[in-house]
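look at this one:
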Amino acid sequence: ILSLIAVICEEIVDNCIKCGGLYFFEFTSFTAFLLSVLILCVYCTDVYETLGEDKVQRLNFYAALGIGACFLLASIVLAATSSDLGAEKAAYAFGFLASVAFLVEFFMECFHRQKQNADGRSENPAATPSATENQPLNKQG
């Protein structure tokens, strides 16, 4: 939603003095919005099950990092080259918010993966059987 608002604010800009930053921001924000919608459609359709949960989560993981980093760079470039119009200020403000949201999603996914790896490890890493595992199931007396 934040990337869509950034696109709308950027489209409101009537004239610009240094348009390179604005055009780069326009491309980045619209691409981020389209990729977000695409990933959302994958999660909401049968494609999620067809591709597999691992592949879709990996796609989302790298997409969030790439989009967040590019959006942050585009917002910085727009902020540096803007002509202090209200629409430009709103656009790069929402750009910064959207990039933070994408990067927070990436770091949450990193934390989730790290937690999954820690939970998935066996409690007996050397694979040495403990004393109770060495005992026969049926004691013969």
Q: What stands out?
A: The CA atoms of residues 24 and 74 lie 6 Å apart. Helices lie at 2-12, 19-44, 47-51, 53-81, 86-120, 131-134. Residues 2-121 form one domain. The chain has one domain: 2-121.
